[in-house]
Inverse folding.
Protein backbone atom coordinates (compact mmCIF):
# COMPACT_ATOMS: atom_id res chain seq x y z
CA UNK A 1 0.00 0.00 0.00
CA UNK A 2 1.47 3.39 -0.95
CA UNK A 3 0.33 5.28 2.13
CA UNK A 4 3.27 7.67 2.04
CA UNK A 5 2.08 9.23 -1.22
CA UNK A 6 -1.57 9.10 -0.39
CA UNK A 7 -3.46 12.22 0.79
CA UNK A 8 -4.99 9.88 3.33
CA UNK A 9 -2.01 10.38 5.57
CA UNK A 10 -1.62 10.49 9.34
CA UNK A 11 -3.63 13.73 9.27
CA UNK A 12 -6.65 11.57 8.57
CA UNK A 13 -6.38 9.84 11.96
CA UNK A 14 -5.21 12.85 13.95
CA UNK A 15 -7.89 15.00 15.53
CA UNK A 16 -10.47 12.29 16.17
CA UNK A 17 -10.12 12.32 19.93
CA UNK A 18 -13.77 13.13 20.51
CA UNK A 19 -15.88 10.82 18.37
CA UNK A 20 -19.18 11.76 19.93
CA UNK A 21 -20.63 14.60 21.93
CA UNK A 22 -20.76 13.44 25.51
CA UNK A 23 -24.09 14.05 27.15
CA UNK A 24 -23.80 16.17 30.30
CA UNK A 25 -23.70 14.10 33.46
CA UNK A 26 -26.95 14.56 35.29
CA UNK A 27 -27.55 14.06 38.99
CA UNK A 28 -29.82 11.10 39.61
CA UNK A 29 -32.63 12.04 41.96
CA UNK A 30 -34.07 9.57 44.39
CA UNK A 31 -37.44 8.07 43.58
CA UNK A 32 -39.84 5.69 45.27
CA UNK A 33 -39.23 3.20 42.45
CA UNK A 34 -35.46 3.32 43.05
CA UNK A 35 -35.97 2.69 46.70
CA UNK A 36 -38.12 -0.36 45.96
CA UNK A 37 -35.70 -1.87 43.39
CA UNK A 38 -33.27 -4.59 44.38
CA UNK A 39 -29.85 -5.06 42.81
CA UNK A 40 -28.66 -8.10 40.86
CA UNK A 41 -28.09 -9.99 44.13
CA UNK A 42 -31.76 -9.30 45.03
CA UNK A 43 -30.79 -7.47 48.20
CA UNK A 44 -33.30 -4.93 49.40
CA UNK A 45 -32.35 -1.29 48.82
CA UNK A 46 -32.51 0.63 52.11
CA UNK A 47 -34.92 3.54 52.27
CA UNK A 48 -33.75 7.12 52.48
CA UNK A 49 -34.59 8.79 55.75
CA UNK A 50 -36.52 12.06 55.62
CA UNK A 51 -33.82 14.18 57.28
CA UNK A 52 -31.17 12.87 54.84
CA UNK A 53 -33.52 13.46 51.93
CA UNK A 54 -33.97 17.10 53.01
CA UNK A 55 -30.22 17.66 53.36
CA UNK A 56 -29.50 16.16 49.94
CA UNK A 57 -32.25 18.28 48.39
CA UNK A 58 -30.75 21.40 50.01
CA UNK A 59 -27.36 20.55 48.58
CA UNK A 60 -28.95 19.83 45.21
CA UNK A 61 -30.71 23.24 45.20
CA UNK A 62 -27.40 24.95 45.97
CA UNK A 63 -25.68 23.02 43.17
CA UNK A 64 -28.39 24.01 40.72
CA UNK A 65 -27.73 27.64 41.67
CA UNK A 66 -24.02 26.92 41.04
CA UNK A 67 -23.23 27.56 44.68
CA UNK A 68 -20.95 24.54 44.72
CA UNK A 69 -19.14 25.56 47.89
CA UNK A 70 -22.34 25.52 49.94
CA UNK A 71 -23.48 22.30 48.29
CA UNK A 72 -20.19 20.52 49.05
CA UNK A 73 -20.26 21.77 52.65
CA UNK A 74 -23.68 20.18 53.18
CA UNK A 75 -22.61 16.94 51.50
CA UNK A 76 -19.32 16.64 53.42
CA UNK A 77 -21.20 17.01 56.67
CA UNK A 78 -23.73 14.43 55.53
CA UNK A 79 -21.08 11.93 54.46
CA UNK A 80 -19.42 12.21 57.87
CA UNK A 81 -22.66 10.98 59.46
CA UNK A 82 -23.98 7.44 59.71
CA UNK A 83 -25.60 6.87 56.29
CA UNK A 84 -27.00 3.66 54.89
CA UNK A 85 -25.75 2.42 51.52
CA UNK A 86 -28.52 4.05 49.49
CA UNK A 87 -28.15 7.40 51.23
CA UNK A 88 -24.38 7.32 50.74
CA UNK A 89 -24.83 6.43 47.07
CA UNK A 90 -27.14 9.40 46.49
CA UNK A 91 -24.79 11.76 48.34
CA UNK A 92 -21.74 10.61 46.36
CA UNK A 93 -23.77 10.83 43.17
CA UNK A 94 -24.43 14.51 43.84
CA UNK A 95 -20.74 15.03 44.69
CA UNK A 96 -19.87 13.53 41.30
CA UNK A 97 -22.30 15.87 39.55
CA UNK A 98 -20.77 18.90 41.29
CA UNK A 99 -17.17 17.87 40.53
CA UNK A 100 -18.08 17.20 36.91
CA UNK A 101 -19.69 20.63 36.67
CA UNK A 102 -16.44 22.12 38.01
CA UNK A 103 -14.51 20.06 35.43
CA UNK A 104 -12.72 18.28 38.26
CA UNK A 105 -12.93 14.94 36.47
CA UNK A 106 -10.61 12.99 38.74
CA UNK A 107 -12.73 13.85 41.77
CA UNK A 108 -15.92 13.10 39.83
CA UNK A 109 -14.62 9.64 38.89
CA UNK A 110 -13.72 8.90 42.51
CA UNK A 111 -17.20 9.93 43.61
CA UNK A 112 -18.83 7.66 41.02
CA UNK A 113 -16.62 4.81 42.13
CA UNK A 114 -17.89 5.41 45.66
CA UNK A 115 -21.45 5.19 44.38
CA UNK A 116 -20.74 1.85 42.76
CA UNK A 117 -19.04 0.59 45.93
CA UNK A 118 -22.30 0.79 47.86
CA UNK A 119 -24.37 -2.31 48.36
CA UNK A 120 -27.86 -2.98 47.01
CA UNK A 121 -27.94 -0.14 44.47
CA UNK A 122 -31.12 0.30 42.45
CA UNK A 123 -30.54 -0.97 38.91
CA UNK A 124 -31.29 2.41 37.35
CA UNK A 125 -28.80 4.22 39.60
CA UNK A 126 -26.14 1.59 38.94
CA UNK A 127 -26.61 1.88 35.16
CA UNK A 128 -26.63 5.67 35.14
CA UNK A 129 -23.52 5.78 37.30
CA UNK A 130 -21.64 3.33 35.11
CA UNK A 131 -22.50 5.27 31.98
CA UNK A 132 -21.54 8.62 33.47
CA UNK A 133 -18.29 7.16 34.78
CA UNK A 134 -17.52 5.70 31.36
CA UNK A 135 -18.06 9.11 29.76
CA UNK A 136 -15.69 10.86 32.13
CA UNK A 137 -13.08 8.14 31.70
CA UNK A 138 -13.14 8.71 27.95
CA UNK A 139 -12.80 12.47 28.43
CA UNK A 140 -9.90 11.83 30.83
CA UNK A 141 -8.27 9.48 28.28
CA UNK A 142 -8.53 6.51 30.60
CA UNK A 143 -9.64 4.38 27.69
CA UNK A 144 -8.93 0.92 29.10
CA UNK A 145 -10.95 1.76 32.24
CA UNK A 146 -13.71 3.19 30.08
CA UNK A 147 -13.98 -0.04 28.07
CA UNK A 148 -14.36 -2.09 31.26
CA UNK A 149 -16.91 0.33 32.72
CA UNK A 150 -18.98 0.50 29.56
CA UNK A 151 -18.99 -3.27 29.12
CA UNK A 152 -20.44 -3.54 32.64
CA UNK A 153 -23.09 -1.02 31.59
CA UNK A 154 -23.94 -2.97 28.42
CA UNK A 155 -24.42 -6.11 30.55
CA UNK A 156 -27.15 -4.27 32.49
CA UNK A 157 -28.77 -2.18 29.77
CA UNK A 158 -31.44 -3.94 27.74
CA UNK A 159 -31.86 -1.23 25.07
CA UNK A 160 -28.56 0.59 24.43
CA UNK A 161 -28.78 3.67 22.29
CA UNK A 162 -26.45 4.57 19.42
CA UNK A 163 -24.45 7.06 21.50
CA UNK A 164 -23.45 4.30 23.90
CA UNK A 165 -22.07 2.15 21.09
CA UNK A 166 -20.12 5.12 19.77
CA UNK A 167 -18.67 5.83 23.22
CA UNK A 168 -17.43 2.25 23.50
CA UNK A 169 -16.13 2.31 19.93
CA UNK A 170 -14.26 5.55 20.61
CA UNK A 171 -12.49 4.10 23.65
CA UNK A 172 -11.50 0.97 21.72
CA UNK A 173 -10.30 3.09 18.81
CA UNK A 174 -8.02 5.11 21.06
CA UNK A 175 -6.54 1.83 22.32
CA UNK A 176 -5.90 0.92 18.63
CA UNK A 177 -8.13 -2.12 19.01
CA UNK A 178 -9.60 -1.38 15.60
CA UNK A 179 -11.27 -4.74 14.95
CA UNK A 180 -13.15 -4.48 18.24
CA UNK A 181 -13.99 -0.81 17.72
CA UNK A 182 -15.52 -1.42 14.30
CA UNK A 183 -18.53 -3.43 15.47
CA UNK A 184 -20.03 -0.96 18.00
CA UNK A 185 -19.45 2.00 15.66
CA UNK A 186 -21.11 0.18 12.77
CA UNK A 187 -23.98 -0.76 15.09
CA UNK A 188 -24.50 2.90 16.01
CA UNK A 189 -24.50 3.90 12.34
CA UNK A 190 -26.98 1.16 11.43
CA UNK A 191 -29.31 2.03 14.33
CA UNK A 192 -29.32 5.71 13.39
CA UNK A 193 -30.17 4.96 9.78
CA UNK A 194 -32.89 2.50 10.71
CA UNK A 195 -34.46 5.21 12.86
CA UNK A 196 -34.35 7.62 9.91
CA UNK A 197 -31.68 9.85 11.42
CA UNK A 198 -28.56 11.32 9.88
CA UNK A 199 -25.29 9.75 10.96
CA UNK A 200 -23.02 12.26 12.64
CA UNK A 201 -19.96 13.35 10.74
CA UNK A 202 -17.54 12.43 13.51
CA UNK A 203 -18.93 8.88 13.65
CA UNK A 204 -18.12 8.48 9.97
CA UNK A 205 -14.68 9.95 10.61
CA UNK A 206 -14.02 7.16 13.11
CA UNK A 207 -14.93 4.59 10.47
CA UNK A 208 -12.75 6.40 7.96
CA UNK A 209 -9.77 6.28 10.30
CA UNK A 210 -10.28 2.59 11.14
CA UNK A 211 -10.61 1.47 7.51
CA UNK A 212 -7.56 3.52 6.56
CA UNK A 213 -5.51 2.04 9.41
CA UNK A 214 -6.55 -1.44 8.29
CA UNK A 215 -5.79 -0.70 4.64
CA UNK A 216 -9.37 -1.57 3.70
CA UNK A 217 -9.76 0.84 0.77
CA UNK A 218 -13.03 -0.65 -0.48
CA UNK A 219 -14.79 0.17 2.80
CA UNK A 220 -12.94 3.45 3.05
CA UNK A 221 -14.34 4.38 -0.36
CA UNK A 222 -17.90 3.73 0.84
CA UNK A 223 -17.43 5.81 4.00
CA UNK A 224 -16.01 8.72 2.01
CA UNK A 225 -18.98 8.54 -0.35
CA UNK A 226 -21.25 8.81 2.70
CA UNK A 227 -19.28 11.79 3.96
CA UNK A 228 -19.55 13.53 0.60
CA UNK A 229 -23.29 12.84 0.39
CA UNK A 230 -23.98 14.30 3.84
CA UNK A 231 -21.05 16.60 4.58
CA UNK A 232 -19.56 17.66 1.23
CA UNK A 233 -16.11 19.06 1.94
CA UNK A 234 -13.01 19.47 -0.19
CA UNK A 235 -10.92 17.01 1.82
CA UNK A 236 -13.45 14.19 1.37
CA UNK A 237 -13.50 14.63 -2.42
CA UNK A 238 -9.72 14.68 -2.53
CA UNK A 239 -9.44 11.60 -0.33
CA UNK A 240 -12.07 9.71 -2.31
CA UNK A 241 -10.11 10.42 -5.48
CA UNK A 242 -6.96 9.08 -3.82
CA UNK A 243 -8.79 5.93 -2.72
CA UNK A 244 -10.04 5.31 -6.25
CA UNK A 245 -6.39 5.54 -7.26
CA UNK A 246 -5.42 2.91 -4.69
CA UNK A 247 -8.20 0.68 -6.01
CA UNK A 248 -6.99 1.13 -9.60
CA UNK A 249 -10.20 2.89 -10.68
CA UNK A 250 -8.45 5.62 -12.68
CA UNK A 251 -11.49 7.01 -14.48
CA UNK A 252 -13.37 7.44 -11.21
CA UNK A 253 -10.28 8.95 -9.64
CA UNK A 254 -10.21 11.67 -12.30
CA UNK A 255 -14.01 12.10 -12.36
CA UNK A 256 -14.09 12.66 -8.61
CA UNK A 257 -11.47 15.41 -8.71
CA UNK A 258 -13.12 17.02 -11.74
CA UNK A 259 -16.45 17.05 -9.91
CA UNK A 260 -14.86 18.77 -6.91
CA UNK A 261 -13.20 21.27 -9.26
CA UNK A 262 -16.44 21.99 -11.10
CA UNK A 263 -18.12 22.71 -7.74
CA UNK A 264 -15.38 25.17 -6.80
CA UNK A 265 -14.23 23.06 -3.85
CA UNK A 266 -10.54 22.83 -4.67
CA UNK A 267 -8.46 25.43 -2.89
CA UNK A 268 -4.99 24.01 -2.25
CA UNK A 269 -1.88 23.77 -4.40
CA UNK A 270 -1.82 19.99 -3.87
CA UNK A 271 -5.39 19.69 -5.19
CA UNK A 272 -4.62 21.61 -8.37
CA UNK A 273 -1.37 19.75 -9.01
CA UNK A 274 -3.13 16.44 -8.44
CA UNK A 275 -5.98 17.33 -10.79
CA UNK A 276 -3.57 18.53 -13.48
CA UNK A 277 -1.57 15.30 -13.30
CA UNK A 278 -4.74 13.22 -13.46
CA UNK A 279 -5.93 15.17 -16.51
CA UNK A 280 -2.57 14.63 -18.21
CA UNK A 281 -2.72 10.91 -17.43
CA UNK A 282 -6.28 10.85 -18.76
CA UNK A 283 -5.26 12.47 -22.07
CA UNK A 284 -6.98 15.77 -21.32
CA UNK A 285 -3.95 18.08 -21.60
CA UNK A 286 -5.81 21.23 -22.68
CA UNK A 287 -7.95 21.26 -19.52
CA UNK A 288 -4.86 20.41 -17.46
CA UNK A 289 -3.16 23.55 -18.77
CA UNK A 290 -6.19 25.70 -18.00
CA UNK A 291 -6.44 24.25 -14.49
CA UNK A 292 -2.80 25.17 -13.84
CA UNK A 293 -3.23 28.67 -15.26
CA UNK A 294 -6.31 29.21 -13.09
CA UNK A 295 -4.31 28.17 -10.03
CA UNK A 296 -1.56 30.61 -10.99
CA UNK A 297 -4.06 33.43 -11.50
CA UNK A 298 -5.72 32.78 -8.14
CA UNK A 299 -2.38 32.71 -6.35
CA UNK A 300 -2.98 29.13 -5.20
CA UNK A 301 -0.10 27.67 -7.18
CA UNK A 302 3.34 29.22 -7.33
CA UNK A 303 4.97 29.72 -10.70
CA UNK A 304 7.99 27.67 -9.77
CA UNK A 305 10.14 25.57 -12.06
CA UNK A 306 8.26 22.29 -11.53
CA UNK A 307 4.79 23.77 -11.98
CA UNK A 308 5.82 25.66 -15.11
CA UNK A 309 7.40 22.51 -16.52
CA UNK A 310 4.11 20.66 -15.96
CA UNK A 311 2.29 23.50 -17.71
CA UNK A 312 4.72 23.24 -20.63
CA UNK A 313 4.11 19.48 -20.87
CA UNK A 314 0.35 20.11 -20.93
CA UNK A 315 0.61 22.68 -23.73
CA UNK A 316 2.94 20.40 -25.71
CA UNK A 317 0.50 17.48 -25.49
CA UNK A 318 -2.28 19.86 -26.50
CA UNK A 319 -0.12 20.88 -29.51
CA UNK A 320 -0.09 24.49 -28.33
CA UNK A 321 3.61 24.86 -29.09
CA UNK A 322 3.99 28.62 -28.63
CA UNK A 323 2.45 28.39 -25.15
CA UNK A 324 4.59 25.36 -24.34
CA UNK A 325 7.77 27.19 -25.36
CA UNK A 326 6.82 30.21 -23.25
CA UNK A 327 6.20 28.13 -20.12
CA UNK A 328 9.31 26.00 -20.61
CA UNK A 329 11.43 29.09 -21.20
CA UNK A 330 10.31 30.52 -17.83
CA UNK A 331 11.00 27.21 -16.11
CA UNK A 332 14.42 26.89 -17.71
CA UNK A 333 15.42 30.33 -16.45
CA UNK A 334 14.72 29.18 -12.87
CA UNK A 335 16.61 25.90 -13.08
CA UNK A 336 20.08 25.34 -11.65
CA UNK A 337 21.11 23.15 -14.58
CA UNK A 338 20.71 23.23 -18.34
CA UNK A 339 18.29 20.33 -18.78
CA UNK A 340 15.21 22.45 -19.43
CA UNK A 341 17.09 24.66 -21.87
CA UNK A 342 18.06 21.50 -23.74
CA UNK A 343 14.40 20.43 -23.81
CA UNK A 344 13.48 23.90 -25.08
CA UNK A 345 16.15 23.67 -27.77
CA UNK A 346 14.70 20.34 -28.91
CA UNK A 347 11.19 21.83 -29.17
CA UNK A 348 12.43 24.81 -31.19
CA UNK A 349 14.38 22.46 -33.47
CA UNK A 350 11.30 20.33 -34.04
CA UNK A 351 9.47 23.51 -35.12
CA UNK A 352 12.41 24.56 -37.34
CA UNK A 353 12.82 27.70 -35.22
CA UNK A 354 16.57 27.69 -35.68
CA UNK A 355 17.56 31.01 -34.13
CA UNK A 356 15.64 30.16 -30.93
CA UNK A 357 17.01 26.61 -31.00
CA UNK A 358 20.56 27.92 -31.20
CA UNK A 359 20.04 30.29 -28.28
CA UNK A 360 18.45 27.59 -26.11
CA UNK A 361 21.16 25.01 -26.95
CA UNK A 362 23.92 27.44 -26.02
CA UNK A 363 22.09 28.38 -22.80
CA UNK A 364 21.95 24.67 -21.96
CA UNK A 365 25.69 24.30 -22.57
CA UNK A 366 26.51 27.44 -20.59
CA UNK A 367 24.29 26.42 -17.67
CA UNK A 368 25.86 22.95 -17.74
CA UNK A 369 25.09 19.85 -15.68
CA UNK A 370 23.06 18.19 -18.44
CA UNK A 371 22.85 14.46 -19.06
CA UNK A 372 23.39 14.68 -22.83
CA UNK A 373 25.64 17.63 -23.74
CA UNK A 374 26.26 15.88 -27.08
CA UNK A 375 22.62 16.52 -28.02
CA UNK A 376 23.03 20.22 -27.29
CA UNK A 377 26.10 20.25 -29.57
CA UNK A 378 24.19 18.49 -32.35
CA UNK A 379 21.30 20.98 -32.10
CA UNK A 380 23.81 23.83 -32.10
CA UNK A 381 25.32 22.44 -35.29
CA UNK A 382 21.92 21.98 -36.97
CA UNK A 383 20.83 25.51 -36.04
CA UNK A 384 24.05 27.01 -37.42
CA UNK A 385 23.76 24.97 -40.61
CA UNK A 386 20.16 26.04 -41.16
CA UNK A 387 21.08 29.70 -40.68
CA UNK A 388 23.83 29.33 -43.31
CA UNK A 389 26.73 29.57 -40.86
CA UNK A 390 28.48 26.54 -42.31
CA UNK A 391 31.96 27.02 -40.88
CA UNK A 392 30.57 27.50 -37.38
CA UNK A 393 28.27 24.50 -37.92
CA UNK A 394 31.21 22.32 -38.94
CA UNK A 395 33.08 23.36 -35.79
CA UNK A 396 29.99 22.60 -33.64
CA UNK A 397 29.65 19.11 -35.15
CA UNK A 398 33.36 18.63 -34.54
CA UNK A 399 32.74 19.30 -30.84
CA UNK A 400 29.73 16.96 -30.89
CA UNK A 401 31.89 14.20 -32.39
CA UNK A 402 33.92 14.10 -29.17
CA UNK A 403 31.00 12.34 -27.50
CA UNK A 404 30.62 8.68 -28.27
CA UNK A 405 26.80 8.85 -28.22
CA UNK A 406 26.65 11.34 -31.11
CA UNK A 407 29.97 10.66 -32.78
CA UNK A 408 28.56 8.92 -35.86
CA UNK A 409 25.86 11.48 -36.67
CA UNK A 410 28.19 14.39 -35.96
CA UNK A 411 30.84 13.06 -38.32
CA UNK A 412 28.23 12.49 -41.00
CA UNK A 413 27.03 16.08 -40.72
CA UNK A 414 30.62 17.40 -40.69
CA UNK A 415 31.38 15.44 -43.84
CA UNK A 416 28.16 16.61 -45.44
CA UNK A 417 28.96 20.24 -44.64
CA UNK A 418 32.48 19.85 -46.07
CA UNK A 419 31.02 18.45 -49.30
CA UNK A 420 28.47 21.24 -49.35
CA UNK A 421 31.20 23.79 -48.89
CA UNK A 422 33.14 22.20 -51.75
CA UNK A 423 30.02 22.23 -53.95
CA UNK A 424 29.35 25.86 -53.15
CA UNK A 425 32.98 26.74 -53.80
CA UNK A 426 32.86 24.97 -57.17
CA UNK A 427 29.69 26.86 -58.07
CA UNK A 428 31.36 30.11 -57.08
CA UNK A 429 34.42 29.34 -59.23
CA UNK A 430 32.20 28.48 -62.21
CA UNK A 431 30.25 31.72 -61.76
CA UNK A 432 33.42 33.77 -61.68
CA UNK A 433 34.84 31.99 -64.74
CA UNK A 434 31.62 32.68 -66.60
CA UNK A 435 31.79 36.34 -65.67
CA UNK A 436 35.43 36.57 -66.79
CA UNK A 437 34.64 34.84 -70.12
CA UNK A 438 31.77 37.16 -70.75
CA UNK A 439 34.02 40.12 -70.08
Amino acid sequence: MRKASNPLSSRLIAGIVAACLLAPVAWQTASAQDQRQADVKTKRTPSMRENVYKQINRARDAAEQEDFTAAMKDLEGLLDSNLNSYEAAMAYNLVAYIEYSRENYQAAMKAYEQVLAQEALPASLQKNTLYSLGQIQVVSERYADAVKTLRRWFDLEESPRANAYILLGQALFQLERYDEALKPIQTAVRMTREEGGQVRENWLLLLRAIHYSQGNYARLRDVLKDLIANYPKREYWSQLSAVYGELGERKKQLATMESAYDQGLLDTAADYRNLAQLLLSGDVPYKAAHVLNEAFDRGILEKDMQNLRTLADAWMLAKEYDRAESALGQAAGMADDGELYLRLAQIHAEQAEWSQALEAARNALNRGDIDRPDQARVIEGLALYNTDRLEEAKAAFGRAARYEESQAVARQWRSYIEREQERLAALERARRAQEEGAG
Observations:
- The two ends are 88 Å apart (CA to CA).
- Residues 1-24, 29-42 have pLDDT under 50 and may be disordered.
- The chain has 22 helices and no strands.
- Residues 407-438 form the longest helix (32 residues).
